[in-house]
Write a structure and sequence with these properties.
The structure holds two protein chains of two kinds. Chain A is an all-alpha fold. Chain A has helices at about 1-5, 10-15, 20-30, 35-50, 55-60, 70, 95-135, 135-150, 155-165, 170-180, 180-195, 200-205, 210-220, 225-245, 260-265, 275-305. Chain B is flat. By secondary structure, chain B is mainly α. The chains are: A mainly alpha, B mainly alpha. Chain B: This is ABC di/oligopeptide transporter inner membrane subunit.
Chain lengths: ~300, ~325
Amino acid sequence: MSAHTLTPAAATAAPEVKQRSSLRMTVDYLLKDRASLIAASFLVLLVLFALAAPLLAGITGHPANDQFRETGLTPAGVPVGPGTEFWLGADQLGRDVLVRLAYGARVSLIVGVVASLAAASIGIMVGMVAGYFGGKVDTVLSRCIDLVMSVPFLLAALALVSVLGASLPLSVGVIVFFSWTSLARVIRGQVIALRQREFVEAARSLGAGHWGIIFRDILPNLAAPIIIYATLMIPSSIVFEATLSFLGMGIVPPDASWGGMLAEASGNSIYLTAWWLVLFPGLALLFTTLAFNVLGDGLRDALDPRTRRKAK
Amino acid sequence: MFMFLLKRLGFGLLVLFLLSLFVFLLFFVAPGDPARAIAGDKATEELLAQIRDTLGLNQPLYQQYLDFASRLLHGDLGFSYRSQQPVTELIFDRLPVTMSLVGGAMVLWLLIGIPVGVASARKPGSLRDRIGQSFAMTGISFPTFVLGMILLYTLYSLPAKAGFLLFPPSGYIELAQSPVQWAWHLVLPWITLALVTAAVYARLTRAQMLEVLGEDYIRTARAKGVREQSVIYKHAFRSAMTPLVTQLGIDIGVMLGGVIVIEQVFGLAGVGSLAVQAVQTQDRPVIIGVVLLGGLFVAVANILVDIAYTRLDARVRTA
């Protein structure tokens, strides 16, 4: 507004004020944060790696589930290490570790992102409704949150899988069911503070309905915590899936998943001789969760100036 | 205060009731015939009918649940389909392993996590703080089983190949049998669990201490000339402790589930590996028993946290 009221002479004399959108500021901040930049680059490479899985299978000539017992195993039946034929080595059945790693990346990323989005949506809805309506609605929903948080989730997941049988959709369902609660609590707290604010009063006095206020006025103000928490939810979902697969309750073999690869390596302690069977899927898993966590922290700093250089 | 605890106790019981309903429905409504699971595929119809009769499987569903719940209240979790042993016996046999694992690791993770967090918070932004924070970030991101496998490879397998045994690969020796052997066998699992969990405590301690150290009463204490060591540990840490106690309660509560992977990696025959075996062999009474025990742990831990709160924080006591 003020730029329009200035005389042309004053406008040229004053230093130019560049308006930056909040998205622009966030991106600028992230670009200056070296750790976030490295994390984001890693994740881009990881997505490319996952997309290139069939391509890698083509180049190496090793489809993910095919066993190359002649070339992948020594005559004594020991898997061969990294080399020209198998770039990251072969596993105990003579399968290509690199190709399986790429297919496993697909599972981890899909489960991580899908489960987190679904869990975040539930968490946001429950949190907004509980925080906005308060009273009995809040009491019931908050008790539900407490209830889910009190369930020993890995044990309950094992019980579910043992009855229904392991599958990818079930893994995602279990992860979603046990992951929405923390975001719901955060959102609820934020909404309780927001609903007292003048702009909500204003919307109400203009005749906006409850849902209109929730979605049009309150939701946009929750963008920062949602982005941060959803980003941080992805690594926990990925580890949850890997843990289920590691215990043989996740992705059904022979399909590749990082947790499954580690389970096979651990199963007969073969990794104690064939180090590549634990190193590559282990590092892939570690770096992926690390990258998402670092990015989540970076986003928190970028989106929430109060936490900057303070409590991370 | 009494009412508050009574309410929390009621909520704990509600959780356990719902959990028992959940596992009951899960297993008794789910496909699969428990009688066949016990007797095997070759059992005659007569035998199956007899087993169903003994287990009360012919009764209406609500009657079955009431029987199940009343046995539960008497501490009877039924018999394992596989070994025919009482489930409580199976669990109690393995509880010392899991307790030793969690207990030792807890001491370690508190000894690592809290000092790292305090050190970070005393000089935010310093090199020490950065190292502390990197440690915390890596620890939080490390899947337990990956760290366990890497430690086993580097600290057991590599030295073993070179001809000396630094740590044993797996197994459990009872404390009463030999305390030294007991600890030696548990060092690697302890370190694994402790490093991963200490990271959470380091972050939490740092955040809490930063907040508390900015308060007026800390400035007052310093102005009075109280020694820095006292300011940090007596004045600041005491109020920063409350969230740590909550975290500890949650962690101990869920540990029964959390140690499953560690027990698998290190070949420890604890409650977690009992659960995994039970799932693999479809041994439903054992799964139900372990899940309910897990729920009981969480409920008890939550109540203990509430009691600790009232002792630590005067605001809760008077509320």
